[in-house]
């Protein structure tokens, strides 16, 4: 699926129809949406502690897949790890490069690669490959199969692959559709920015749509109203484990729920259960 073909469902879609020409719709991972996503996710420390512990004994570079603006990449660089950061969004990679430049004391070196992680061609192997933030859900079943095959080939002997996903409770998946809405505000110049986040779950299609509505408010007037949209697949941990096994990767460790949220109190939403899998190549 491409961002250009995504139509916001649910409440976000109704707002888009109400606002009509007064609302611009853009892909979440495009140049403008990437900046909003980065600002919204900077305080999210989910998985980072587990990742840094897994990387303690790694001597070579770490491969960070779907790195985005560096939520996992930057902590690794700060600990002195060299990182190959892969993303298909040039806007996200540019943000990562800028954020890395703002951290002159980061001891690791950064190599960015613009590529589709399911077809990436890298002349290297890695002791640690990470795919966080449930980004595995960006790929359909064929894409995930291709990705796991590439990961199996890129793992150094004894290497590990850390991949996260999100399990959802029956309250979200047993009805035809469900929706979660939350709001964040930022104070700045010349006015305030209001971000409304819509999570829409379509169980029959196996799709979760994220719609991020940005509205800038100054002197009581709303300007720069923009809707950023992306779609991901609903891939629970049981399905992911089965697909990994088919690709020759077995799960050696599983962390979930509060274990991943120690540093981010309140990060979990009702009915959402984060899962982090540590995988090894099957001999």
Notable traits:
five-stranded mixed beta sheet, Rossmann fold, 283 residues, 26% helix, 2 domains, alpha/beta, 8 helices, seven-stranded mixed beta sheet
Describe the structure.
This protein has 283 residues and is α/β, with parallel strands linked by helices. The protein folds into two domains: 102 residues, no CATH class; 168 residues, Rossmann fold, CATH 3.40.50. It has eight helices and twelve strands. The strands form two sheets. The protein has a seven-stranded mixed β-sheet with strand order 4-3-2-5-6-12-11, sandwiched between helices. Strands 1-10-9-8-7 form a five-stranded mixed β-sheet, sandwiched between helices. Strand 5, helix 6 and strand 6 form a beta-alpha-beta unit. Helix 2 crosses helix 5. The longest helix is centred in the middle third of the chain and has 14 residues. It is globular and about 60 Å long. The two termini are 35 Å apart.
Q: Element order, helices and strands? A: HEHHEHEHEEHEHEEEEHEE
Counting H and I runs of at least 4 residues, what is the number of helices? 8
Please indicate the count of domains.
2
Spatial strand order of the main sheet: 4-3-2-5-6-12-11
The CATH homology group name of the largest domain? Vaccinia Virus protein VP39
First-last Cα distance:
35 Å
What is the CATH architecture assignment of the largest domain?
3-Layer(aba) Sandwich
Strand tally, please? 12
- The whole-angstrom Rg is 19 Å
Task: Provide the structure class.
Answer: alpha/beta
* CATH topology heading of the largest domain: Rossmann fold
Ranges with pLDDT <50 over ≥5 residues? 261-268
Largest sheet descriptor: 7 strands, mixed
Fraction in beta strands: 35-45%
Q: What spatial form do the alpha-carbon principal axes imply?
A: globular
Can you identify the CATH class of the largest domain?
A: Alpha Beta
- Overall pLDDT metric: 89
Q: What oligomeric assembly is this protein in?
A: single chain
Helix content: 25-40%
